[in-house]
Write a structure and sequence with these properties.
This protein is α/β, with parallel strands linked by helices and 217 residues long. The chain has helices at 13-24, 38-48, 64-74, 89-98, 110-121, 130-148, 157-167, 172-179, 183-197, 202-211, and strands spanning 4-9, 29-35, 52-55, 79-84, 102-105, 126-127. It has two domains: 4-143, Response regulator (Rossmann fold, 3-Layer(aba) Sandwich), CATH 3.40.50; 151-211, Arc Repressor Mutant, subunit A (Orthogonal Bundle). The protein is built from ten helices and six strands. It has a six-stranded parallel sheet, with helices on both faces. Helix 5 links the parallel strand 5 (102-105) and strand 6. The longest helix is centred in the middle third of the chain and has 19 residues, at 130-148. The protein starts with a strand and ends in a 6-residue tail after the last helix.
Length: 217
């Protein structure tokens, strides 16, 4: 059976040697290269064709986040394991979006890194205990923002102009004349406005305009 080809990327020689030593205890794995920055990592992925890349975040020339994005762009089949001391939300989320398969902290036991390799080798994922918590919190924040977002903010500038005319009771032809557009275009804007604001009638638009102090009663 062919071995799992692994590239290690870290700008600290001690860390490189530690990872390499741990991997060499498992005959099914093979370290095919070592890079000391993101630029080398990108070059080595092209030339060495590893199955898995174990990569730090903070490195000279090109950091792990940008290196990950570049690697996944030209070879999405490569699995990337982030091995870092950083648990910052921004890093976790950016790398998750970039398509990393695992995220392990250097504070965790080195055995966790081996577990990550085994999980990724089988097509799975592995995240340090803090990563799921960070991602869950991020999803909750996105959901809260989505729920609290005012639908009125989604209207374009032209749609707001049409909205205001409709709310004031202006007919379609007059709106078209005032805005120098065709009645058909006004009808199209009206439809989009009603959809975006979940309004069933012009009366609903008038009520909304009053609540927002856009027209006076």
């Amino acid at each position: 059976m062919s071995k799992v080809r692994i590239l290690i990327v870290d700008d600290h020689r001690v860390v490189l040697e530690g990872i390499k030593s741990a991997i060499q205890e498992h005959p099914e794995f093979e370290v095919v290269g070592e890079a000391i920055d993101g630029l080398e990592a990108v070059e080595f992925v092209r030339s060495l064709r590893p199955h898995i890349v174990i990569m730090d975040i903070s490195m000279p020339n090109l950091n792990g986040v940008e290196a990950t994005k570049q690697i996944k762009r030209f070879n999405p089949e490569v699995s990337i394991i982030i091995f870092t001391m950083y648990a910052d939300k921004e890093f976790v989320i950016d790398l998750f979006k970039a398509g990393v398969s695992a995220y392990v902290l250097k504070d965790d036991p080195l055995s966790d890194l081996i577990l990550a390799i085994k999980a990724v080798k089988g097509g799975g994922t592995y995240f340090s205990t803090m990563a799921p918590t960070v991602l869950l919190r991020h999803m909750e924040e996105l959901e809260e923002k989505s729920m609290s977002k005012d639908p009125f903010d989604s209207l374009s500038q032209r749609e707001r102009e049409v909205f205001l005319h409709l709310a004031e009771g202006t007919n379609i032809k007059k709106i078209a004349d005032d805005l120098f557009i065709s009645p058909k275009t006004v009808e199209s804007h009206k439809y989009n406005i009603m959809e975006k604001l979940n309004a069933s009638s012009v009366v609903d638009l008038t009520k909304l305009a009053i609540r927002k102090n856009l027209i006076k009663v």
